[in-house]
Amino acid sequence: MTADQVRIRLEPLAVEFEAPRNVPLLPLLADHGVEFPCGGEGICGGCRVRVLSGTLPVTSADREHFSGEELSDGWRLACHARAAVPIVIACSQWHMDVLSDDIRIVAAGKPGLGIAIDLGTTTIAAQMIELQSGDVLAVEAMLNPQAAFGSDVMSRIRAVLHGADLTSVIRTALGEVIARLASGREREITEVLLAGNTVMHHLFCGLDVAPLSHVPFASPCLGEQRFGPRDMGWGLPDDSAIRFAPCIGGFVGADIRAGITATGMPHSGDLIALIDLGTNGEIAIGDRHGVVCASTAAGPAFEAGAIRMGMRAVTGAVSHVSLANGRMHATVIGDVAPRGICGSGLVDAVAMGLHGGAVLASGRIVNGTKVLPVADPVVLYQSDIRELQLAKGAIAAGFKLLLREIGASVNQLHSVYLAGAFGNYVQIESALAIGLLDAPKQIIHAAGNTALRGAKMLLMQTGPPGLPEIRHINLAADPGFQDEFAACMAFPEPAEIIQIAN
């Protein structure tokens, strides 16, 4: 280590690295899993860390987010941190689960190896497939390195419009993923297929994201994009194909197209629904005769964004809540002391609050304090309940309007699949209890990573995908959406109330 460098140690993982003295730590911390939800602008306070040894100068952004006592205890915003001396900092944003997919796909007998990639906003999952047999030979997963520019797509769009290069960042990272997957078998890879939302599609492909930054959020470049290995700088055979699957609409991407394939919708005689419960809330309903789909601005509540003690599903997050003997009982990821609550825990806690009489159907917390205790020190505030109502109201309204669009009722649905990480971990009973879903419990299924599974299926096809007509519905332009949204804001009245003990 030279005199111009300082040593940084991250706890609790005991990770150490060297950093240039007095330069921003943001890119180095992002490489080690620290999240910067607002892209390092110092607005959200979501990248808080604590200095355990050494010192970090107090910045104006620190003073805006922390009290004098918290500053004295070493709390700082990582996005503004610059180290002049060796430091040890506590960063507990670790151990995020990345959904892979272990369902074996029936192969069509193509030669060679292929790689399927789910390029998510937060996480990346990739698998190398033997195309002849359909066997999965290797799996890789990682955080999306673009997270250093913001945890949501709009933050990343703003970063690009201000001159940031997010295309090179993701192409380099995926090149490293492919090299680890191939591990000496690069010459056998004939094709790479990617699926992701529309913003990830545009950022990877180097397309203009400006049309996605404002109403009507429509881009002229939604189609499949093809590249050669030299375009990417990847060490693959010159004749191997790199494809990013086509998107459907401004906020209905290739990941939903892949999910439609994965659920069997294109070949089904029965009506199937696919719901991706993320910030955009993508919904698709259809069968082999046709599919309608839409996105609805659910907001970040399902990922615990805009929740005062919200956090992603990482160590220390309350992930599930139950009610027994009149008391809340929390499950915490990592079996450690709770420090926040993730999306599945939020839905559970409100469902239990309704069941225990602590939350009314209107969403009001009844104890007069406007606080719902979950697991000390984690509580939900009245504003948190309102954020969940907005999110679930948007999904429920979109779901009903799409059914209305095709002249169907919920009773005609054969299956409802919940895609993605939140859909995989949310308790279906709790989702029903808050009115997020309105369908018989027995037809609702956690579907896992349908984007990756669908990408594998598309990768192994020998001909055109054979999808039915997919119609994109602009819910924002539907005159009935606001009325339906308002009607879906309230929670259902619980069938029985078991009073929560004080």
What does this structure look like?
- With 502 residues, this protein is an alpha/beta fold.
- The chain contains 14 helices and 22 strands.
- The strands form five sheets. Strands 8-7-6-9-11-10 form a six-stranded mixed beta sheet, sandwiched between helices.
- It is globular and about 65 Å long.
Radius of gyration: 23 Å
Tell me about the largest β-sheet.
Answer: 6 strands, mixed
Estimated helix fraction: 25-40%
Mean pLDDT reading: 88
Poorly predicted segments: none
Distance between the termini: 57 Å
Number of strands: 22
Helix count, DSSP H or I runs of 4 or more residues: 14
User: What class, by secondary structure content?
Assistant: alpha/beta
Brief summary of the model shown:
With 502 residues, the protein is α/β, with parallel strands linked by helices. Helix content is 26%, strand content 24%.
List the helices and strands and how they pair.
Blueprint: E1 5-11, E2 15-20, H1 26-31, E3 48-53, H2 60-65, H3 68-72, E4 75-77, E5 87-90, E6 113-119, E7 123-130, E8 136-143, H4 153-161, H5 166-182, E9 189-196, H6 198-205, E10 225-227, H7 229-232, E11 241-244, H8 254-262, E12 271-276, E13 282-287, E14 290-295, E15 317-324, E16 327-332, E17 340-341, H9 343-355, E18 371-375, E19 378-381, H10 382-405, E20 413-419, H11 420-425, H12 428-433, E21 444-448, H13 450-460, E22 470-472, H14 481-487
Parallel strand pairs: 1-5, 6-9, 9-11, 12-20, 14-22, 15-17, 20-21
Antiparallel strand pairs: 1-2, 3-4, 3-5, 6-7, 7-8, 10-11, 12-13, 13-14, 15-16, 18-19
